[in-house]
Automatic annotation (TrEMBL):
This protein's UniProt keywords: DNA-binding, Transcription, Transcription regulation
Family, per entry: Belongs to the LysR transcriptional regulatory family.
InterPro entries: LysR-type_TF_proteobact-type (IPR058163), LysR_HTH_N (IPR000847), LysR_subst-bd (IPR005119), WH-like_DNA-bd_sf (IPR036388), WH_DNA-bd_sf (IPR036390)
UniProt GO BP: DNA-templated transcription
Protein name: Transcriptional regulator GcvA
ATP-binding listed as a keyword: no
Pfam families hit by this protein: HTH_1, LysR_substrate
Residues covered by the HTH lysR-type domain: 23-80
CDD domains in UniProt: PBP2_GcdR_TrpI_HvrB_AmpR_like
GO molecular function, one term: sequence-specific DNA binding
Taxonomic superkingdom: Bacteria
Length: 318
Protein backbone atom coordinates (compact mmCIF):
# COMPACT_ATOMS: atom_id res chain seq x y z
CA UNK A 1 0.00 0.00 0.00
CA UNK A 2 1.33 3.43 -0.92
CA UNK A 3 0.03 6.40 1.00
CA UNK A 4 1.07 9.95 1.82
CA UNK A 5 -0.61 10.67 5.12
CA UNK A 6 0.42 10.04 8.72
CA UNK A 7 0.13 6.57 10.21
CA UNK A 8 -3.36 5.88 11.57
CA UNK A 9 -3.71 3.67 14.69
CA UNK A 10 -6.34 1.52 12.94
CA UNK A 11 -3.92 0.61 10.18
CA UNK A 12 -1.49 -2.31 10.49
CA UNK A 13 2.05 -1.20 11.45
CA UNK A 14 3.43 -3.50 8.79
CA UNK A 15 2.24 -1.01 6.20
CA UNK A 16 4.92 1.55 5.70
CA UNK A 17 5.05 4.94 4.08
CA UNK A 18 6.83 4.96 0.75
CA UNK A 19 8.25 8.24 -0.51
CA UNK A 20 8.65 9.01 -4.17
CA UNK A 21 12.22 8.96 -5.41
CA UNK A 22 14.06 12.08 -4.21
CA UNK A 23 17.00 13.88 -5.82
CA UNK A 24 20.39 13.22 -4.23
CA UNK A 25 21.10 15.35 -1.15
CA UNK A 26 24.44 16.47 -2.63
CA UNK A 27 22.65 17.78 -5.71
CA UNK A 28 20.12 19.66 -3.58
CA UNK A 29 22.87 21.24 -1.46
CA UNK A 30 24.67 22.31 -4.62
CA UNK A 31 21.48 23.74 -6.09
CA UNK A 32 20.69 25.66 -2.89
CA UNK A 33 24.13 27.28 -2.84
CA UNK A 34 23.99 28.12 -6.55
CA UNK A 35 20.48 29.56 -6.17
CA UNK A 36 21.44 31.65 -3.15
CA UNK A 37 24.44 33.16 -4.92
CA UNK A 38 22.99 32.97 -8.43
CA UNK A 39 26.53 32.02 -9.36
CA UNK A 40 28.07 28.62 -10.02
CA UNK A 41 31.55 29.97 -9.25
CA UNK A 42 30.61 31.30 -5.81
CA UNK A 43 28.72 28.11 -5.02
CA UNK A 44 31.81 26.11 -6.00
CA UNK A 45 33.99 28.22 -3.68
CA UNK A 46 31.56 27.74 -0.78
CA UNK A 47 31.35 23.98 -1.28
CA UNK A 48 35.08 23.52 -2.03
CA UNK A 49 34.44 21.94 -5.42
CA UNK A 50 35.12 23.01 -8.99
CA UNK A 51 32.87 25.17 -11.15
CA UNK A 52 32.50 22.17 -13.47
CA UNK A 53 31.28 19.96 -10.62
CA UNK A 54 28.56 22.48 -9.73
CA UNK A 55 27.49 22.81 -13.36
CA UNK A 56 27.34 19.01 -13.70
CA UNK A 57 25.23 18.62 -10.55
CA UNK A 58 22.77 21.32 -11.66
CA UNK A 59 22.37 19.84 -15.15
CA UNK A 60 21.79 16.37 -13.69
CA UNK A 61 19.17 17.79 -11.31
CA UNK A 62 17.42 19.65 -14.13
CA UNK A 63 17.32 16.48 -16.20
CA UNK A 64 15.87 14.54 -13.29
CA UNK A 65 13.21 17.20 -12.67
CA UNK A 66 12.48 17.57 -16.37
CA UNK A 67 12.79 21.36 -16.47
CA UNK A 68 15.40 24.11 -16.29
CA UNK A 69 16.14 25.74 -12.94
CA UNK A 70 18.48 28.43 -14.28
CA UNK A 71 18.60 30.61 -17.36
CA UNK A 72 22.11 30.73 -18.85
CA UNK A 73 23.10 34.16 -20.13
CA UNK A 74 26.69 33.85 -21.20
CA UNK A 75 28.73 33.36 -18.04
CA UNK A 76 25.83 34.50 -15.83
CA UNK A 77 23.01 32.35 -14.50
CA UNK A 78 19.60 33.43 -13.24
CA UNK A 79 16.91 31.38 -11.54
CA UNK A 80 13.78 30.63 -13.50
CA UNK A 81 10.46 31.34 -11.82
CA UNK A 82 10.04 27.65 -10.99
CA UNK A 83 13.69 27.45 -9.95
CA UNK A 84 13.20 30.28 -7.45
CA UNK A 85 10.16 28.61 -5.93
CA UNK A 86 11.96 25.26 -5.76
CA UNK A 87 15.01 26.89 -4.16
CA UNK A 88 12.87 28.34 -1.36
CA UNK A 89 11.33 24.95 -0.58
CA UNK A 90 14.67 23.14 -0.78
CA UNK A 91 16.31 25.72 1.50
CA UNK A 92 13.54 25.29 4.09
CA UNK A 93 13.91 21.51 3.96
CA UNK A 94 17.70 21.64 4.35
CA UNK A 95 17.37 24.03 7.29
CA UNK A 96 14.93 21.64 8.94
CA UNK A 97 17.41 18.78 8.49
CA UNK A 98 20.19 20.95 9.96
CA UNK A 99 18.00 21.94 12.94
CA UNK A 100 17.03 18.32 13.58
CA UNK A 101 20.68 17.28 13.46
CA UNK A 102 21.73 20.00 15.90
CA UNK A 103 18.91 19.08 18.28
CA UNK A 104 19.91 15.42 18.15
CA UNK A 105 23.58 16.21 18.80
CA UNK A 106 22.82 18.66 21.60
CA UNK A 107 22.11 15.85 24.05
CA UNK A 108 25.43 14.19 23.28
CA UNK A 109 27.33 17.48 23.64
CA UNK A 110 26.62 17.61 27.36
CA UNK A 111 28.53 14.36 27.84
CA UNK A 112 31.36 15.06 25.38
CA UNK A 113 34.32 17.14 26.57
CA UNK A 114 36.34 18.48 23.64
CA UNK A 115 39.82 19.79 24.41
CA UNK A 116 42.02 21.54 21.87
CA UNK A 117 45.76 21.96 22.34
CA UNK A 118 49.05 22.01 20.43
CA UNK A 119 50.27 18.68 19.00
CA UNK A 120 53.49 18.84 21.03
CA UNK A 121 51.70 19.46 24.34
CA UNK A 122 49.10 16.81 23.55
CA UNK A 123 51.78 14.20 22.82
CA UNK A 124 54.24 15.01 25.60
CA UNK A 125 52.05 16.10 28.51
CA UNK A 126 48.29 15.69 28.18
CA UNK A 127 47.93 12.27 26.56
CA UNK A 128 50.07 10.43 29.18
CA UNK A 129 47.96 11.96 31.99
CA UNK A 130 44.40 12.24 30.67
CA UNK A 131 43.66 8.63 31.63
CA UNK A 132 43.36 9.56 35.30
CA UNK A 133 40.71 12.18 34.46
CA UNK A 134 38.75 9.62 32.44
CA UNK A 135 38.91 7.16 35.34
CA UNK A 136 37.60 9.82 37.73
CA UNK A 137 34.86 10.95 35.34
CA UNK A 138 33.61 8.02 33.24
CA UNK A 139 30.39 9.97 32.63
CA UNK A 140 32.20 12.16 30.08
CA UNK A 141 33.46 11.21 26.62
CA UNK A 142 36.79 13.00 26.09
CA UNK A 143 37.89 14.16 22.65
CA UNK A 144 41.40 15.59 22.15
CA UNK A 145 42.01 17.84 19.16
CA UNK A 146 45.64 18.66 18.37
CA UNK A 147 46.20 21.78 16.29
CA UNK A 148 48.45 24.82 16.26
CA UNK A 149 45.54 27.01 15.14
CA UNK A 150 43.65 29.15 17.63
CA UNK A 151 40.14 27.96 18.41
CA UNK A 152 37.13 29.95 17.26
CA UNK A 153 34.73 29.10 20.08
CA UNK A 154 31.86 30.74 18.16
CA UNK A 155 32.03 28.29 15.26
CA UNK A 156 33.86 25.22 16.61
CA UNK A 157 32.50 22.68 19.07
CA UNK A 158 35.40 22.99 21.49
CA UNK A 159 34.94 23.29 25.26
CA UNK A 160 38.48 24.07 26.42
CA UNK A 161 41.72 25.15 24.74
CA UNK A 162 45.15 24.75 26.34
CA UNK A 163 47.32 27.25 24.50
CA UNK A 164 50.81 28.72 24.58
CA UNK A 165 50.53 32.45 24.02
CA UNK A 166 50.27 35.92 25.49
CA UNK A 167 46.97 35.24 27.22
CA UNK A 168 45.32 38.17 25.48
CA UNK A 169 42.10 36.54 24.32
CA UNK A 170 39.33 39.19 24.67
CA UNK A 171 35.91 38.01 25.75
CA UNK A 172 37.14 34.62 26.99
CA UNK A 173 37.99 33.13 30.36
CA UNK A 174 41.78 32.86 30.54
CA UNK A 175 43.78 31.25 33.36
CA UNK A 176 47.56 31.10 33.44
CA UNK A 177 48.84 27.58 34.03
CA UNK A 178 52.57 27.38 33.45
CA UNK A 179 55.69 29.46 32.86
CA UNK A 180 58.46 27.79 30.92
CA UNK A 181 62.10 28.12 29.90
CA UNK A 182 64.22 27.07 26.93
CA UNK A 183 67.53 25.24 27.14
CA UNK A 184 69.58 23.05 24.76
CA UNK A 185 69.30 19.25 24.84
CA UNK A 186 70.77 16.41 22.84
CA UNK A 187 71.15 12.65 22.92
CA UNK A 188 73.79 11.36 25.37
CA UNK A 189 75.26 9.56 22.33
CA UNK A 190 75.38 12.68 20.16
CA UNK A 191 78.76 13.26 18.52
CA UNK A 192 79.90 9.84 19.68
CA UNK A 193 79.22 10.81 23.29
CA UNK A 194 81.67 13.73 23.12
CA UNK A 195 79.24 16.41 24.24
CA UNK A 196 80.14 20.10 24.30
CA UNK A 197 81.20 21.24 27.78
CA UNK A 198 80.78 24.95 27.11
CA UNK A 199 78.37 26.87 24.83
CA UNK A 200 81.22 27.93 22.54
CA UNK A 201 82.03 24.27 21.91
CA UNK A 202 78.80 23.97 19.87
CA UNK A 203 80.50 25.79 16.99
CA UNK A 204 80.20 23.69 13.85
CA UNK A 205 77.74 21.24 15.43
CA UNK A 206 74.26 20.72 13.91
CA UNK A 207 71.71 22.93 15.64
CA UNK A 208 68.14 21.80 15.11
CA UNK A 209 65.69 24.58 14.37
CA UNK A 210 62.06 24.97 15.36
CA UNK A 211 59.68 27.40 13.73
CA UNK A 212 59.19 30.27 16.17
CA UNK A 213 61.93 29.03 18.55
CA UNK A 214 64.94 31.24 17.73
CA UNK A 215 68.41 30.38 18.99
CA UNK A 216 69.75 33.96 19.03
CA UNK A 217 68.25 34.98 22.44
CA UNK A 218 69.82 31.89 24.00
CA UNK A 219 73.19 32.67 22.33
CA UNK A 220 73.08 36.13 23.92
CA UNK A 221 72.25 34.70 27.35
CA UNK A 222 75.22 32.33 26.96
CA UNK A 223 77.57 35.20 26.07
CA UNK A 224 77.85 34.27 22.40
CA UNK A 225 77.59 36.72 19.51
CA UNK A 226 76.48 34.13 16.99
CA UNK A 227 73.80 34.87 14.39
CA UNK A 228 70.59 32.88 14.11
CA UNK A 229 71.26 29.53 12.35
CA UNK A 230 69.97 29.48 8.78
CA UNK A 231 70.91 25.93 7.84
CA UNK A 232 70.10 22.51 9.20
CA UNK A 233 66.93 20.60 9.97
CA UNK A 234 63.82 22.77 10.49
CA UNK A 235 60.64 21.40 12.08
CA UNK A 236 57.32 23.04 12.81
CA UNK A 237 56.36 20.74 15.66
CA UNK A 238 58.44 20.93 18.85
CA UNK A 239 57.70 17.30 19.70
CA UNK A 240 59.31 16.20 16.44
CA UNK A 241 62.24 18.51 17.15
CA UNK A 242 62.78 16.78 20.48
CA UNK A 243 62.49 13.39 18.79
CA UNK A 244 65.22 14.39 16.31
CA UNK A 245 67.48 15.43 19.18
CA UNK A 246 66.84 12.13 21.00
CA UNK A 247 67.81 10.27 17.82
CA UNK A 248 71.20 12.03 17.80
CA UNK A 249 70.55 14.30 14.82
CA UNK A 250 71.69 17.47 16.57
CA UNK A 251 71.16 19.88 19.45
CA UNK A 252 67.67 21.26 20.01
CA UNK A 253 66.47 24.29 21.96
CA UNK A 254 63.46 22.90 23.83
CA UNK A 255 60.96 24.01 26.47
CA UNK A 256 61.49 22.28 29.80
CA UNK A 257 57.85 21.11 29.94
CA UNK A 258 58.29 19.16 26.69
CA UNK A 259 61.74 17.80 27.50
CA UNK A 260 60.86 16.58 31.01
CA UNK A 261 59.93 12.95 30.23
CA UNK A 262 62.92 12.48 27.92
CA UNK A 263 65.27 14.04 30.47
CA UNK A 264 63.91 11.74 33.16
CA UNK A 265 64.33 8.65 30.99
CA UNK A 266 67.80 9.68 29.82
CA UNK A 267 66.85 9.85 26.15
CA UNK A 268 68.21 13.40 26.13
CA UNK A 269 70.47 15.37 28.43
CA UNK A 270 70.54 19.06 29.17
CA UNK A 271 73.56 21.03 28.03
CA UNK A 272 74.93 23.86 30.20
CA UNK A 273 73.29 25.80 33.02
CA UNK A 274 71.91 28.52 30.77
CA UNK A 275 68.22 28.98 30.07
CA UNK A 276 65.98 31.74 28.78
CA UNK A 277 62.33 32.44 29.63
CA UNK A 278 59.78 31.23 27.14
CA UNK A 279 57.89 34.29 25.83
CA UNK A 280 54.67 32.27 25.62
CA UNK A 281 52.87 30.95 28.68
CA UNK A 282 50.45 28.04 28.88
CA UNK A 283 46.85 29.10 29.45
CA UNK A 284 43.49 27.47 30.12
CA UNK A 285 40.99 29.14 27.75
CA UNK A 286 37.23 28.76 27.36
CA UNK A 287 34.09 30.83 27.07
CA UNK A 288 32.54 32.16 30.25
CA UNK A 289 29.41 30.11 29.54
CA UNK A 290 31.42 26.88 29.13
CA UNK A 291 33.27 27.52 32.37
CA UNK A 292 30.00 27.03 34.27
CA UNK A 293 29.26 23.60 32.76
CA UNK A 294 29.89 20.49 34.89
CA UNK A 295 32.27 18.93 32.36
CA UNK A 296 34.56 21.98 32.13
CA UNK A 297 34.47 22.46 35.90
CA UNK A 298 35.45 18.81 36.38
CA UNK A 299 38.32 19.08 33.92
CA UNK A 300 39.63 22.30 35.47
CA UNK A 301 39.49 20.83 38.98
CA UNK A 302 41.52 17.84 37.76
CA UNK A 303 43.95 19.92 35.68
CA UNK A 304 45.03 22.52 38.26
CA UNK A 305 46.45 20.05 40.82
CA UNK A 306 48.14 18.10 38.00
CA UNK A 307 49.74 21.29 36.76
CA UNK A 308 50.83 22.26 40.29
CA UNK A 309 52.59 18.92 40.76
CA UNK A 310 54.24 19.31 37.39
CA UNK A 311 55.49 22.82 38.21
CA UNK A 312 57.12 21.47 41.36
CA UNK A 313 58.83 18.70 39.39
CA UNK A 314 60.00 21.13 36.72
CA UNK A 315 61.72 23.34 39.26
CA UNK A 316 64.68 20.90 39.37
CA UNK A 317 65.35 21.51 35.66
CA UNK A 318 64.95 25.28 35.67
Amino acid sequence: MVWSGAWHPDEPRSWKREFPRLPALAALRTFEAAARHESFSRAAAELFVTHGAVSHQIRALEEELGQPLFERRGKRVMLTANGRLYAERVRDALLQIADATRALQAGNREKRLTISTMPSFAARWLTPRIGSFIEQHPEFDVELLSSNSLVDFASEEVDVALRMGSGQYPGLYVERLLDDVFFPVCSPNFNGGRLPEQPAHMAGMPLLRGEGDPWKPWFEAAGLTWAEPTKGLMMQDSSLLLQAAAEGQGIALIRSSLAYNDLLSGRVVRLFDVSIPCPWLLHFVCTHASLETPKVQAFRQWLLPEMERFRNILSQWT
